[in-house]
Design brief:
Chain B: One of its GO terms (cellular component) is plasma membrane. The complex is a heterodimer of chains A (379) and B (290). Chain A is built from nine helices and 20 strands. Chain A is α+β, with helices and mostly antiparallel strands and 379 residues long. Chain B has 15 helices and no strands. Classes of the chains: A alpha+beta (379), B mainly alpha (290).
């Protein structure tokens, strides 16, 4: 969290006034703790007999935090983002910005920044006019003078590293450049919170990687409270301070990347944040049994009875130990990082890729030892 | 991309316009196009100009500046422009409603829009005359308010608006359907009022299509005859349109006079359409960045 962070809770929506921001900076009013955005029990359904889009979602976002909403498509993550922005009206629940209840404040007056997956730039306006749009949209007495608009747009163009493109039209830019312009446009109004809806979803892999790093830098520079939606767990793990994992309209777990990765709260989280091999197993007598063979010592606190045994591929290695799990090699190949074998463990739903040192042929029988494992009660 | 990469390869000597291409077809299609346009459009118009030129420049000038002819030309072009302008606005609104909203009877209304295309124009003229006559359904209440529609220039305007409407709806409709909803949302999030979003975000991309509709409606209105003569009253100097004047001249066996007025109309229409096209080109460059 940086010292340039403006207090989201204090003056609510008026805070995007430059002067208010400058004052708050001068007085050193930096809030640690507290919440920038809070949603409480958000309900939203799209009618019909289908599943509800959001089934009572509650979440706190700290000032200056970079939070990822992670989930598969249809999990409600975009809907939640749009509810926070004011683009969707929830059927129930409240939204707070700082201490202010913004549930009933129309989208035009919420003062959020929003970046769309497909940029949604104004195609008939130049890059400059796109970025200036929010400032020009203010009512006369809050609209900055032309010289200041110009200065601010130029500063933003520098921030997004496109200082020479002010006079271009969006159609003349590449995808990555468009998304930078969209981000500059969203930041121009000095939003209380920046919302990004799958911001890199439409870009190719390399640009995506660059923009990810660059967004992290911008966030460090500006300390802007940011929520972004993604279905890419790598993106969430790499970028976010905290990750909220959504599934079917509910939050399954909220936590720092290492928490959700090392201590997944549910089988869904486990399999969503990383590749997982899953086997039907049973915990009894202090051991985990697969196919009537004990394979691991059970940790204290693991549920008894039938469970799903979940293993990360990087915790698996070929070994001949007593407890090793039997499996069949499906395929063996070289990659940039070494050699891997695709191994179908007996009783597993899908094969896993395991790093190996020897050469295998499809059909070879191998045994894998697990350095770590997690179990989740079945049902 | 460097500018050099974008620059077209120089055409081979002796073959202007023709660049080597892996996808041939230029020569065949261009040949057919020129032949067809010559036969169907240019030749008849050339004959018209030839016949009109028989009366000489002085005679032509006298005809054009003849006060009755001048009044008719003014009526035709002035009211056509007005009608096209009204259609452009109303057409946008109708296209918007038909595209944006779902309501019972939408398809029916959508089909109704094309009726002015399909109707013999005389039918439209008779219907409008009956409706707006001083004792008609609309004419009677309007007459009480002191507004006369039938047998006045206002009647002509109503008829021209009627026949031009489909052009303005059909040209704009596909573009309304294409409007990116998220750019509207972006405008709202950036604090723009609905009105500001409409003027600055939604309308500009529609301007080129609106101009196309305007040009088509205008062209149709200038040439319109059937629906107008029934409702116009056809008073010389007041509610007489140029096409009617041509017919009158023809009935008097004054072929030269008729072709002369026709030639003038042709030139005026052509310049008007050319001007609209140029504006359209400009607006496409200005607003049409995709």
């Amino acid at each position: 969290m940086t010292a340039t962070l403006a207090p989201a809770g204090v003056s609510g929506l008026a805070r995007d006034d430059l002067r208010a921001r400058a004052d708050s900076l001068a007085s050193g009013a930096v809030h640690h703790g507290g919440t920038a955005v809070r949603v409480e029990g958000i309900l939203k359904s799209y009618g019909g007999a289908g599943p509800a889009a959001l089934e009572g979602v509650s979440l706190d976002i700290a000032p200056g935090e970079l939070l990822a909403l992670l989930g598969p498509s249809g999990s409600g993550k975009t809907t939640l983002l749009r509810v926070i922005a004011g683009l969707e009206i929830p059927d129930g629940g409240r939204v707070f910005f700082g201490r202010q209840d913004t549930t009933d404040i129309p989208v035009q007056r919420r003062g959020v920044g929003f970046v769309f997956q497909h940029y949604a730039l104004f195609r008939h306006l130049t890059v400059f006019e796109n970025i200036a749009y929010g400032l020009r949209s203010r009512e006369r007495k809050r609209r900055p003078p032309e010289a200041e608009i110009k200065a601010r747009v130029e500063r933003l163009l520098d921030l997004v590293q496109l200082p020479t493109l002010a006079k271009r039209y969006p159609g003349q830019l590449s995808g990555g450049q468009r998304q930078r312009v969209a981000l500059a446009r969203a930041l121009a109004v000095e939003p209380s919170v920046l919302l990004l809806d799958e911001p890199f979803g439409a870009l190719d892999a390399q640009v995506r990687k660059d923009l990810r790093r660059w967004l992290r830098e911008i966030h460090r520079e500006t300390g802007q409270t940011t929520i972004f939606v993604t279905h890419d767990q790598d993106e969430a793990l790499e970028l976010a301070d905290r990750i909220a994992i959504l599934n079917r309209g509910r939050i399954e777990q909220v936590g720092a990347p290492h928490e959700v990765q090392d201590h997944p709260a549910s089988r869904f989280v486990m399999s969503f944040v990383g590749e997982t091999a899953r086997l039907a197993a049973e915990v009894r007598q202090g051991r985990v049994w697969v196919d009537g063979r004990p394979v691991l010592a059970a940790e204290s606190g693991w549920p008894q009875g039938p469970v799903d045994l979940c293993l990360r591929p990087w915790d698996l290695a070929v070994g001949q130990g007593e407890n090793a799990l039997p499996g069949t090699v499906r395929e063996w190949r070289r990659t940039g990082r070494g050699t891997v074998a695709e191994i179908q463990l007996d009783g597993a739903e899908a094969p896993v890729e395991v790093a190996v040192t020897e050469v295998y042929r499809p059909g070879d029988r191998v045994r894998l030892e697990a350095a770590a494992a997690r179990v989740f009660a079945r049902g | 991309m460097s500018p050099a990469a974008l620059a077209p390869a120089a055409p081979r000597a002796g073959r202007p316009f023709l660049r080597p291409s892996a996808l041939p077809g230029f020569r065949l299609t261009f040949g057919i196009t020129v032949t067809y346009l010559t036969l169907v459009v240019l030749l008849p118009l050339a004959v018209l100009l030839l016949r009109a030129s028989a009366i000489g420049p002085a005679g032509l000038w006298a005809l054009v500046t003849d006060s009755r002819n001048l009044a008719a030309l003014k009526t035709s072009f002035g009211l056509s422009l007005a009608a096209a302008a009204i259609d452009a606005v109303a057409g946008l609104l109708i296209a918007w409603v038909l595209t944006r909203y779902r309501f019972p009877g939408r398809r029916l209304i959508d089909a109704l829009v094309d009726l002015p295309f399909a109707l013999p124009t005389a039918v439209a003229g008779i219907a409008l005359a009956a409706l707006y006559a001083p004792n008609g359904w609309l004419g009677a209440p309007l007459a009480e308010l002191g507004i006369k529609v039938a047998y006045t220039p206002l009647g002509i305007l109503v008829a021209l608006v009627f026949v031009g409407l489909p052009f303005c709806v059909r040209t704009v409709q596909p573009l309304v359907a294409e409007i990116d909803k998220s750019s509207e949302e972006a405008a709202a999030i950036l604090g723009a009022s609905r009105f500001r979003a409409l003027v600055t975000v939604i309308l500009p991309p529609l301007v080129p299509a609106m101009l196309t509709g305007f040009a088509l409606a205008f062209a149709r209105a200038v040439g319109e005859y059937g629906s107008v003569i029934f409702v116009a009253g056809n008073l010389p100097y007041v509610s007489e349109i140029a096409p009617l004047l041509i017919v009158i001249k023809l009935e008097e066996f004054n072929y030269t006079g008729a072709t002369a007025i026709a030639a003038v109309m042709l030139l005026m229409s052509f310049s008007a359409l050319l001007a609209i096209n140029l504006i359209q080109d400009y607006s496409r460059r200005r607003f049409g960045h995709v």
